[in-house]
Design goal:
184 residues, alpha+beta, 5-stranded mixed beta sheet, 5-stranded antiparallel beta sheet, 14% helix
Length: 184
């Protein structure tokens, strides 16, 4: 009979740990971990763009993981941060007023996860709002531009490497949580 209360307590404690890390992922700004070689990424979003360095899955407890840019007030962010990246076709084009942009530094040669959380209150006639998590491995000294948007017709996840006047599409790989317990 003593086991049931202990199991219930253990379950609550484990669930609380996951919730704390999830909450921290909203209240902690992304911070570039120290790395010998780095790349730069300009991120545009109309939701909440978060990042996890040095991982190919989502773990909000990783040092540096957090919010890159968010289109609403009240969250930690790097909104408007600039690192002197070169202009792109997108950055030279006027865009929707609810887009937020930020430039961040990421470790090169290691996987990096982008996570989009929809913050839309618009009714686009879909059963669920969009979101997703994707990874790529940046190359040292390169510049990238990531677009993570929710529109009436689709969710957009588009990563390009900026190389002078040329912009080359970079493939993204969909990822999930590192551990199922991170969902609690």
């Amino acid at each position: 009979m003593q086991r049931l209360p202990l199991l219930a307590l253990a379950s609550l404690l484990l669930a609380g740990c996951g919730n704390i890390s999830n909450v921290q992922s909203f209240s902690t700004p992304y911070t570039a971990p120290a790395a010998a070689e780095t790349a730069r990424v300009r991120v545009y979003t109309n939701g909440m763009a978060r990042g996890v360095p040095n991982h190919d899955c989502i773990d909000w407890r990783v040092p540096g993981a957090g919010v890159i840019a968010v289109a609403r007030k009240g969250f930690a962010n790097r909104n408007g941060q600039t690192l002197g990246m070169p202009a792109s076709a997108l950055s030279r084009t006027p865009h929707d007023a609810d887009w937020i942009g930020s430039e961040i530094q990421v470790p090169a040669g290691q996987p990096f996860v982008f996570h989009l959380l929809s913050l839309s209150t618009k009714d686009y006639g879909r059963a669920a709002q969009c979101g997703g998590s994707f990874t790529f491995t940046p190359h040292a000294g390169k510049d990238y531009e990531m677009v993570m948007l929710e529109t009436a017709s689709q969710c957009t996840f588009d990563l390009k490497q900026l190389s002078g006047a040329e912009e080359v599409k970079v493939p993204l790989t969909r990822v999930g949580l590192c551990s199922w317990t991170d969902n609690f």
